[in-house]
Amino acid sequence: MSDIRVLLVDDQDLFREGVRVIIDAQEGMGVVGTAGDGVEAVRLVDELAPDVVLMDIRMPEMDGVEATRQLLAPDRVARRAATGAAPVRVIVLTTFNLDDRAATAIRHGASGFLLKDTTPLQLRDAIRTVHAGNAVLAPDDLTALMAGSFVAPTPTPTAYLELTDKEREVFAAVARGLSNIEIGALVFASESTVKTHVGAILRKLTLRDRVQIVVYAHEHGLVSS
């Protein structure tokens, strides 16, 4: 398998170089470029085509939230897909755990966030996880993050109303941060059946992963207690 191409974005030179050394020492991945602000990050993503972007939140010129929004905007994603290129994944780097800016970046499509004091092994595993198309933030952690970052809910989309009763039940459980095993016990279904329902929900709502289900639920006022 080819190496995972990583773009590292942070305004602190020492931090960038330290993380670069860590990533380059891991098997199957390497840093293809670095940027000190969001403007440079957006340019380098187009130029270098990384697989994963490690994106600092707080930077001059353009912060990580706006850079993430631009990189994962639907039109840019569609253009990248049209060329046959793999989707770029963004992991937000932050100093604070329940960070409102991290929550906003996740709403824009980031695949999760890591604290800057994460261990080298956690960083390695997060990059591999996101490259495989999964999220690096557990849904229950994201539920707490979204709950602490209030956004007025928007009207319920037609696509949600077209889910089956069982799919809505599974949707609500995912939004609460339950695992597939926990959901199976709740809805009296096997884990494989739950996975099938989750896959159908993602497809019907055109969402990428379970993290986006949690975000979707909060944005549309569909979170049950």
UniProtKB/TrEMBL annotation:
It comes from Nocardioides plantarum. Gene3D superfamilies: 3.40.50.2300. The keyword Nucleus does not apply. Signal peptide: none annotated. Residues 156-221 form the HTH luxR-type domain. The modification 4-aspartylphosphate is found at D56. The keyword DNA-binding applies. It holds the Pfam family GerE. Keywords: DNA-binding, Phosphoprotein, Transcription, Transcription regulation. Residues 5-131 form the Response regulatory domain. This is Response regulator. InterPro entries: CheY-like_superfamily, NreC/VraR/RcsB-like_REC, Sig_transdc_resp-reg_C-effctor, Sig_transdc_resp-reg_receiver, Tscrpt_reg_LuxR_C, WalR-like.
